[in-house]
Amino acid sequence: MTAAxxxxxxxxxxxxxxxxxxxxxxxxxxxxxxxxxxxxxxxxPARHSAQRAWSEIGRRYxxxxxxxxxSTEETPSRYKE
Length: 81
Prior knowledge:
about 55% helix; single chain; mainly alpha
């Protein structure tokens, strides 16, 4: 197997792992989570998956505290009279 064939096979494995990781971010390898983060602008579902991937990376490496976002509906606006 040539170097180009090995690299192509590695890219295919990485792509497959990223696809399999969508929806199962907690069990996904780090490389797959990073790939998901790279696709954040592809679509709305991709954006949600990237948020879950980021939360999982933060949980694993203790730098992101995952909390529920507060509702902005009750937040007073300074522009509202």
